[in-house]
Amino acid sequence: MRKKNGKVYTNYRCRTYAQMLKSACTKRTISEEDIANAVLAVIQKYIEVLIDFEEVLKNADYQKHRRSQSYAVEKRLNQKQRELDDIERIKMGLYTDLKKNIITQDDYVSLKAGYAEQAVTLSQQIGSLKDELKNLEKQDTMQNEWLERFRKHRNIEKLTRPIVTELIDVIYIHEGRQITIKFKFQDEFEKINEFMEREDETVNLKAAI
Fold first, then answer.
1. Quick check: 29 and 2 in contact, CB under 8 A?
2. Rounded distance, CA 89 to CA 126, Å?
3. What does the mean pLDDT of the chain come to?
4. Which of 20, 60, 96, 115 has the fewest other C-beta atoms within 10 Å?
């Protein structure tokens, strides 16, 4: 922090350079004003792109894409649950087979252990699929929250601390005064962007046929 002409200026310096050996990093500083201007510009650009995203989210193809993801997971989940139910029925029948001398004691122990191992594997797979389904449902909620956060700052002209706290996870400063900004909910942004890119590739392919 420094003063000039009665005004206070804040500069940020590389922590690695300040705390460790100077050879570990080059000396670099950047003013708070420069960071604020860069962050504001990126947020404004995100909001601009968001307008296109909102149209995509309303698109029937995107809604179909989201439903197909959930349907595919539910289908695998139901299949694994049926397999587990079959295994449990077989396990229960082993004891009856043993009493009727259909299988030997050794067969009973071996088969029971094998089916028990299969049941554990299926239970783990079912648990993973349930988590995946919950994550898909959670993504819809997070997506709406993410969109609303940016939407309410559609006409942003000045950066404030509450806005930074609400929208940004972390800011990295690199060599050459380059800045990388990681937004909260950035994964959601990238997923929708990937869908848009796939759609563009599909349209281009159709046009070429």
1. no
2. 17
3. 77
4. 60
15-48 as b/e, with b when 16 or more CB fall inside 10 Å?
A: eebeeeeeeeeeebebeeeebeebbbebbeebbe
- Helix and strand element counts for the chain (H, E): 6, 6
| Residue 126, domain extent | 2-208
DSSP H or E stretch at residue 132: helix 105-151
From residue 204, give the alpha-carbon distance in Å to each of 40, 128, 135, 191, 197.
34, 36, 32, 20, 11
CA–CA distance, 190 with 172 (Å, rounded to integer): 19
Task: Give the CATH number of the domain where residue 106 resides.
Answer: 1.10.287
pLDDT, greater one: 114 or 45 = 114
Q: Report the domain count for the chain.
A: 1
Which residues have a Cβ under 8 Å from the Cβ of 25 and sit 6 or more positions away?
14, 16, 17
- Residues in a beta bridge with 173: 179
Region class of 13: left (phi > 0), else alpha (psi between -120 and 50), else beta: beta
The answer to whether the beta carbons of residues 184 and 145 sit under 8 Å apart is no
Which residues on adjacent β-strands are paired with residue 11?
31
Residue found under tokens 């049941």: 119
Is 80 exceeded by the pLDDT of residue 183?
yes
Tell me the C-alpha to C-alpha distance, in Å, between residue 176 and each of 1, 180, 208.
21, 12, 42
